[in-house]
Amino acid sequence: MDLTSSGDVTKLLEYLDNCRGLISTVDHAEIPIDHQIHTLKVDLRFFRTYFKWWDSNWTDGKDIRDYVQNAASELHSLCLEPATDGSMTRDLGLFVSNMIEKMKDYKKTRDSKDGIQNDKLTSLLTRIKSVILRAVYLSYFCFVHRIDEIVYLNSYLVWMIKHIEPEVKEICVGFLKDSESSQSDTLPEDLRTVVSIDSLFDNLMQLLNCNSSFIIPLKDKIAILHQDLRFMRALLMDPPPRKHDEDEEDKLEKFIEDLINDTKSIIPSFYADEMKEETTNEMNLVLSSFLDKFKLIKSQVRDNYIEVPRKSQFMFFGTDELPFIDSVLKNLDELLNFSADSIVSLKHQVETVHGELVVLKLLLKDILENCNKHELADLMEHVIDVTHEAEHVINSYVVGYVPSWYQMLKISDLLEEFNLVKTELAEILNNKRCDNTVHNIQKTTPLVLSQAHTVTTEEVVVGFEDQAEKIIEQLTRASRQLDIVSIVGMPGLGKTTLARKVYNDPLVSNHFYVRAWCCVSQAYQKRGLLLDILSQVVEVTDRMHKMSEEDLADKLYKGLKGRKYLIFMDDIWNIDVWDDLRRYFPNDHNGSRIVSTSRIHEVALQAKSHSSPHLLRLFSEEESWKLLQEKLFQKESCPMELVEVGKQIAKNCKGLPLSVVLIAGILARMDKKIDRWKHVAANLSTFRVSDSKQCHDILELSYKNLPDHLRPCFLYFGAFAEDREVPVRKLLLLWVAEGFIQKSEMMGPEDVAEDYLMDLVGRSLVMVTKTRSKGGVKTCRVHDLLHDLCLAKAKEEKFLQRINGHNELYAPYLGGSDDNVSYHSFYSSAPEQPRLCIHSMRKDFAEWKPYHKHVRSLLFFATAGEHFATMLDPYNFSFIFYSLKLLKVLDISCVSMRTFPSEIELLVYLRYLAFRGEMNSIPSSIVNLTNLETLFVKGVRGEVVLPDTIWEMVNLRHVLIEDRASIRLLIKRNRQILQMHNLTTLGTPSVFNDEDTEVIIRGFPNLRKFKCIFMESWDSISNCNQFPALDFLDKLESLKISYYGKVRNPSKFMFPSNLKKLTLTKFRLPWNEISQIGRLPNLEVLKLLFKSFERKRWDMKDEEFLNLKYLKFDNLDIAQWNASSDHFPYLERLVLLRCKQLEELPSCLGDVPTLQVIEMQWCSPSSAESARQIQENQKDMGNEDLKVLIKTC
């Protein structure tokens, strides 16, 4: 049946020409829709040709022809007379629904028949449906002028159609091979050529397996010919988009066709009975001629369709060369074990690249052991570039971003690059051109620090004594009117440091009834600021988080009313902030104060305070030298030989405290030798730190002195909002997933990452803002100027792109015209900026259509401005999974999805996944994410059921499900219990005391952190509430348990002896049950939260809590606490929250020599007074170190 004259597909093609005319009349010339329509027409012409030459012997051919005719006719009729009242959308929807139903009905009738052709037909039907569906979408957007959506369709639609066609062609080729030879003259040219190539493959393989003495000399060239034919077949099956110069491309196609025919004609010569040496020589020349012609074809394809990466296009940090190659080798090993069909045709090339990298690694190892690496910087950079480009091409092919011919050609080119690099490396070794003197080069291997990091949030404060005294007097002794005290100074002068010094001064803390500290920053967010202040004034409940801004403001006003308060507002950039918040701070004429810091003098003047702003001065030379010594030597003295040059360094900092701190960070990592310090002093003498450049030169110096492995970790702070505290656990897991962390045989990647962070803290580039109960860092941040440096360097070095707000998110893609970019854009090299972080409103992000398809990391941060009611609205993010298939890191946890997206399985390279949504289960297809290491899921509707396939995800290290998870026991057919040996963090499964629960937990033998919900499990035999045994988890260090159920006593625990941190909630246990916990020999942190223990009296027993360092009570009804001086011999910090019935603290706590802090919030006045008395007693005995922090109810 010839559709050329009467087929409805032809009508549809004519309609698409009308669409092109319609689009041309719209004033959106930059929209590349013309090429899109052209591509769709190519696909539809293929179908028309396919039906035209359908094998007439297959009787079912008429059914499929009729089906496509009817579908095309309906679409044609629908689109020729579009309605203007919105009914077109409805009609299109009905059309698509009817078409899908027809597909289902037709498939049912075919299911009763068998044979290979039936499978091929079903596959073909699916492809046809997809193409026509895309035609429907295209038609709709053309007619309603949704030009913004068309931009997205240009990448998505073309990608879908282009990757449908090769599969359809494979089906078609299969039919053509089975068709009768009499029809061969009427077959489409490109498919006839493919069939010819397939017939050559068998012949060539026979020759390669032949051991004839005349064939053996030709085998190398025959093997190359075989590879070239594979390339030509791939090119014909999935050709690149056609350019406007179609004559040249037609010539190339004709050249390929003739070359294949010539190749086919000479193959029989190899099978001649009388092969002679002369014949072999002659055939060698013929093969050489053919291979030269194939090279010419590949050269033309390369010139037209392969983008040449610019030198230094890729910026790689986080590893030296050997660890980077190790990482790529590991990824290739995993790829070779991957079972996907897309790997089969790629396996040989992956193995080849893997072998080249192994050899390259050995050569590099020899060179780096004997050579000055810095003299080989260009060569090392080239090694990294080529290695990464090879990995990128392979990954892009696996996810379908590039056709097979592209990866063949590109990998072939890269293998040549590998050979050139190996030759150059071998030459360096042979000629011994390396200078084996590296003693002056600072090592870039990470510092090996203690895993038990002890940190503090307190900064070294030097200077400002006179100004601090004036501010304290103004806060405590001046007018009873509400007043604003402003601290003004240039960036890096120490405004926040001075403010903190004043805020924590005992004269200030004891003078005010309520104190609160908040950071405003340039990106002012009213709602977040109100919640921040409110949380320090009253007890914040879940209900408050759902309040509107006005309700929060009213709550704040009432919380401050009648109370003497002190509010510190750090880093104000605009007077509008103060004008916006002023009315929420009541003036009760009780001496309340507000302190602000700003770098802008006008902001302070416009605040209309009763006093002049405090203008910070620069440091004197003496103050600078004193600060430098404090940062470098703490309480020790500076060696005499360094004093003179040290004073010169301090002087060259020109009185800017931040410069002193940063220089101290550089010196701290150097040998304390006079020549090294003189070198720093000489460099500083050329800097102009106090001019308009501020301390830019010092910042640059600090960055340049960072070792390679720390640079990406530092730049990553640019992804987060300025002045915001960064959760450290999340940060470290992101660093691991990004590949910044070097492998260590002695430590886990998270521990190494923590060492990296502490190194940055030691260099004064990162500030600790909150500490953990065990002494580690809980949150951190970087100074504003350092944050600016992170963003500038991240952009300069193509490390990260940050998008802020609607305007940047929807900025037009400046990629050039369709004529210039459309061809290379399909087959581009690795991304210039592989990481994308977006700060915008949720609804803007949900409507965003990405064009960055090669992005490796996507982080989304929701900004303020949305009403709370809309914050929980679910969104559809399927565009991420179709458009960004190379993602390794995906964090969209601050925006909700309706269900767990099944399309997530497309992101096969994902290592870190964090999201939230209304889902109550996770699909089993998540097992396809074989590289996933970290999984965070926030289920907003309660329990989330994990699939059985979770047990097969052997690379998972951290699984956190909130608010609770359900895990089923999975036993293989051979009764083997599966185990997840790499899992170190798990939260929050519901557990019972039964055999299955214990078996499940035994499946995680290497857990270090475990958070769970204990469901009531009464053991009638032992007559107790039996908690599942955990004593076999010999690596478990941190355990958090919440109890759900009736109050049942007693309870029996079996905790591992190595447990260091324990948190209990809602158990309602009597105090005599605590001895089970007190006898744990390694317990350092104990948190007893909301009704974990009940009863009014706790009488402590001897020989318990012998190593406890941190004790926290929160919302307990304890009234009497009796202890002796022998209890808690190593206690360092005591925290009491909402213990309103506690009468007093045990006085013997003052005798604990290690006690540093007693913190009390919303406790009874009598207990607060007892804490103050303990502090006074300690002062009388000469101990000035005990701090007592009290916020009463």
TrEMBL record:
Signal peptide range: none
Main location: cytoplasm
Domain Disease resistance R13L4/SHOC-2-like LRR per the UniProt entry, residue ranges: 854-1067
Gene3D superfamilies: 1.20.5.4130, Helical domain of apoptotic protease-activating factors (1.10.8.430), P-loop containing nucleotide triphosphate hydrolases (3.40.50.300), Ribonuclease Inhibitor (3.80.10.10), Winged helix-like DNA-binding domain superfamily/Winged helix DNA-binding domain (1.10.10.10)
Alphabetical UniProt keywords: ATP-binding, Cytoplasm, Hypersensitive response, Leucine-rich repeat, Nucleotide-binding, Plant defense, Repeat
GO cellular component: cytoplasm
UniProt domain Disease resistance protein winged helix: residue ranges: 720-790
GO molecular function: ATP binding
Keyword Repeat attributed: yes
Compartmental location: Cytoplasm
SUPFAM superfamilies: L domain-like, P-loop containing nucleoside triphosphate hydrolases
Function per UniProt: Confers resistance to late blight (Phytophthora infestans) races carrying the avirulence gene Avr1. Resistance proteins guard the plant against pathogens that contain an appropriate avirulence protein via an indirect interaction with this avirulence protein. That triggers a defense system including the hypersensitive response, which restricts the pathogen growth.
Family: Belongs to the disease resistance NB-LRR family.
Name of protein: Late blight resistance protein-like protein R1B-16
Organism, scientific name: Forsythia ovata
